[in-house]
Design goal:
The chain is α+β, with helices and mostly antiparallel strands and 334 residues long. The protein contains seven helices and 14 strands. The protein has a six-stranded mixed β-sheet with strand order 4-3-12-11-10-9. A four-stranded mixed β-sheet has the order 1-2-5-6, covered by helices on one side. Helix 2 packs across helix 3 and helix 5 crosses helix 6. The chain starts with 27 loop residues before the first strand and ends with a helix.
Length: 334
């Protein structure tokens, strides 16, 4: 189930073919999902660019989280590896696995790996994610339709006190494509909005709420585009993902790690020697790309929640899925 299956169209933009980050040519996504016994609910998701290096940028909305490799991205403006997303205590093993997988291409790399905390449903301190799981996600990465919800790094995540996880969406912009993938694990139900409607308040406790008490949690957002953007423009796209989170009711709470990354495939062969010819989209033409990021982020979060299924995990904790019928009823009520 996705938003558009219910007739919910976020904003005015038009999605590309799959309404996914993989609509950007050459971008692939892979997952390894770990659901074992009563307490393992976690995994790894990877976003694989068509080649590296590519121009890239990043943005921190709130920094109670991790996205590795950003100092080099800020320094050089380059993405040099696939991007990994997992749980908070497995960043190191996924980072090392991506570094090892990149060794044949480059003797040096600083992988970009992000995390959100899945400890309500997952035995996070058991550190069940291994290098083999990261390698499997890389090997299984594909284009086309992207699996969403309780998959990969999103397996044990909670969003607006419903089941969260992995979601994606895209928009076409003046002949180019913008795609977003999120790992959504943040927010209070009472603030949850869809296209400006306070559906969280309207649904209320008709869907049981989990018992954890604070607004802990985070979101990682990855933006990709085939437009010819330079690093400072990628920074600006990454920043707009935070506006999409805000439209959904996210507040970047003190305990939240809200980190966003953007890369652009419109300039290639950036590792060549000598003088490199580049193209740059005029800044006067970039505002529609901001709209696309905001809308795609909002729709990706909603897709993550609609695809996710009710899950019981560690200590018998249960997080219930957002029921499509109640969502549609709330939107009609508004």
């Amino acid at each position: 189930m996705r938003a558009r299956d219910l007739g919910i169209a976020i904003g005015d933009g038009v999605p590309a073919a799959n309404n996914a980050i993989t609509d950007v040519g050459g971008v692939r996504v892979g997952h390894t999902t770990l659901i074992e016994g009563d307490s393992v609910r976690t995994g790894v998701t990877v976003v694989v660019p068509p080649e590296t290096p590519l121009f890239a940028g990043c943005h921190r909305l709130n920094g109670n989280g991790e996205l590795t490799g950003l100092e080099w991205v800020r320094e050089s403006g380059l993405l040099t590896t696939p991007i990994g997303i997992t749980n908070t205590f497995s960043v190191g093993v996924v980072r090392d696995a991506i570094a090892a997988a990149s060794a044949d291409e480059d003797a040096w790399s600083l992988p970009v790996v992000g995390e959100t905390f899945d400890g309500f449903l997952n035995d996070i301190r058991g550190q069940h994610v291994t290098a083999e799981h990261a390698h499997a996600a890389l090997e299984g990465a594909h284009d086309g339709v992207v699996e969403e919800g309780n998959v990969g790094g999103g397996t044990g995540m909670v969003c607006h006190e419903f089941k969260g996880g992995i979601g994606t969406a895209s928009r076409t912009v003046n002949g180019y494509v913008v795609g977003v993938l999120v790992q959504a694990n943040y927010g209070r139900r009472r603030r949850f909005r869809v296209d400006g409607v306070p559906v969280g308040q309207l649904i209320g406790d008709r869907i049981p709420e989990p018992t954890h008490g604070d607004e802990s949690g985070s979101i990682i957002g990855i933006v990709a585009t085939d437009a010819p953007l330079l690093p400072h423009q990628c920074d600006r796209l990454a920043q707009r993902a935070g506006l999409g989170v805000g439209r959904m009711g996210g507040t970047a709470a003190h305990s939240s790690g809200d980190l966003f990354f953007a890369f652009a495939t419109g300039n290639r062969d950036l590792a060549a020697d000598g003088v490199i010819s580049l193209q740059m989209l005029s800044d006067s033409e970039i505002s529609p790309f901001y709209d696309a990021v905001i809308e795609s982020t909002e729709e990706a979060i909603l897709n993550a929640m609609l695809a996710a299924e009710t899950m019981t995990g560690r200590d018998g904790n249960t997080v219930h899925a957002l029921e499509p019928e109640l969502l549609v009823e709330a939107l009609r009520q508004a």
